[in-house]
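Discussion board: Methods & Data

I've been asked by a reviewer to show the raw model output for two of the constructs in my manuscript, not just the figures. I'm not sure how much to include, so I'm pasting the format here to get opinions. Each protein appears as its amino acid sequence followed by a line of discrete structure tokens. Is this the kind of thing reviewers expect to see in a supplement, or should I convert it first? Here is construct A:
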Amino acid sequence: MNRLIALLCSIVLTACGGTETGSRSLIIATATPGGTYYPVGVAIGTLLTEKLQGSISAAAINSAGSGENVQMLGNDEAQLAILQGLYGAMAYTGTGIYDTPVRDFRSITTLWENLEHFVVDKRHVRTGTLEDLRTLDAPFSVGKRGSGTAGSTRVIFGALDVVSGEDFTPEYLGYSPSAQAMMDGRIGGASLAAGPPVAAVTQLFAQKGADGVAILEVTDLQLERINQVYAVYTRALLPAETYPGQTNEIRTIAQPNFLACRADLSDDVVYQITRALYANLTYLQDIHKATQGMALERAITGLAVPLHPGAARYYREQGLSIPDALIAP
């Protein structure tokens, strides 16, 4: 359905005069509601439409997440997309879930860090770390099928030898449905990776209370094992009071999210997008706390996919040095 909507939007926008030389209309693929991708995608779309009037307009649509977004970029069902750093690395190198490299997309900028939230019903907590997943006696939502969450959860669990179907029964739900299923007692936990505060996690803590729900921690040894598979994760902390009733700091891990685009977007279009984002950064930061860590000096930090030449042009003008690995072939 999302792809059909995207295709119809593209047809309508093109019919209304969206061309490479005139007003260009773009679709931004995000993820399911309840996380961070969708509200930030809406903010980016609104920013570009307002600040680049008569030149570029953009509209965000929801999707299954990073996995589907890579496909939508390739099929021209979306021209921009928010992707996990892990998915970008796997797709571009043809590793992990990808048998062959996907080279028809480029990066524009790092956005914010995706913090892993492994949320479980408090009655399943024994050690308070990911080790508790081995004794989980209830279904666990690993993310919607085709989503970045499902893919990153699979990588993390694989690195720790946590086996789906043996250590736990997998469910494939989006963020809001996962939260509702936990509140209904139908599942015992869920993987909800996003920039905090995550709406679905806030809802869980508000409804079940800190005595009824917990976020599992990731130990230093577990982080080391995960990075032996894909070295994209860093230590991250969830400060106390990030969620209602959460009184203690939580040690988890994070990976960067980034804004990607089709490789065949014109240099001028991508240059305008990049310049508009950084000229109006406080606009995004006022809308969602997850983007408050964004800054020009960190715009290319953690990127695993070459920059679009239009973005690279802007960064060079701003005095950033671009490593060879990020120069598009």
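Construct B, same format:
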Amino acid sequence: MLSFGKKKIFALDIGSYSIKLIELNSSKKGYQLANMASVPLPPEAIVDGALMDTGAIVDAIRNLISSAGVKGGDVAVSVSGHSVIIKKISLPAMTENELADSIQWEAEQYIPFDIADVNLDFQILGPNAVDQTQIDVLLVAAKKEIIDDYTAVIAEAGLNAVVIDIDAFAAQNMVEINYPAEEGEVVATVNVGAELSNINIVKDGVSLFTRDVANGGNQFTEEIQKRFGVSYENADAAKLGGEVEGVDADEVKEVLQEVSGLLSSEIARTIDFFMATNPEDSVRKAYICGGGAKTEGLDKSLADKLGVPVEVVNPFSAISYNEKNFDPEYLDDVAPSFGVAVGLAIRREGD
């Protein structure tokens, strides 16, 4: 949302578990995968969106750029967490220029931060459905501190951040090119990250409601760690299906199912809250992406709680690629974790 001319850029999804890179070529025929890579981050290098170990993050970005063969350039990144506020508000009807002039004052009423400490962006959604003298506006605020931190590490790695988006909106962009919705259909996109899950409810390309919940893939690792008394690294390996001494694979499945139930309940509560306050906009389907999306039982548990179909997305389903350069089995395996990165790669500077 926060754009800083339209030329090609590549995406960096800087998550708390890993950093992912995607580069797409676009033509009249659609998108083609040009480059992809990922590199892990040390535990707690990023906590709740805050960059705690900038040296490790810069090193990881440099290693990623080197392994991908990228020479540097302009990038799109995204942020989420408690430093980001997204609100749909209604204001007296005015032009975009008039709103740009008054947005600081209007935002002060809705943003729980000092307005001088945030970067603001907005999008006019259209006339209010109930009162035609009003317009609906999507207001986005991100603390300048977190924006400055992200742009600084990117600059130190030799790159230039030209687009700063929001994780939930990037995931929305990805779903829209791969899974076009019918007109008027309300869908939920859930990005299950390591620490946070971003929930975005969308209708006709417009975000109706967003919320971040402080639960994600790390919950699964931490529960395995506690249950079996193993290191975080071994617990993470067991979560991903690896053999770990002293850890029973069947018991790991039970843990994953238990935590899937807890996480899906939290996600379902958020979506149920939206539907209770917006009965005319019932969610008809949910799409899940992110590193935690393929965790055993999560999609089924969420479908049971919501009573609607839930699909683990493949962000590359509508993107062509050369099988000589990209292994289809590998893409299928890692696809959900690249959801935000693909959504960012669609962005162009100035759009």
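Answer (T.O., handling editor elsewhere):
This is acceptable in a supplement if you add a one-line summary per construct. For B, something like: The chain is about 35% helix and 30% strand.
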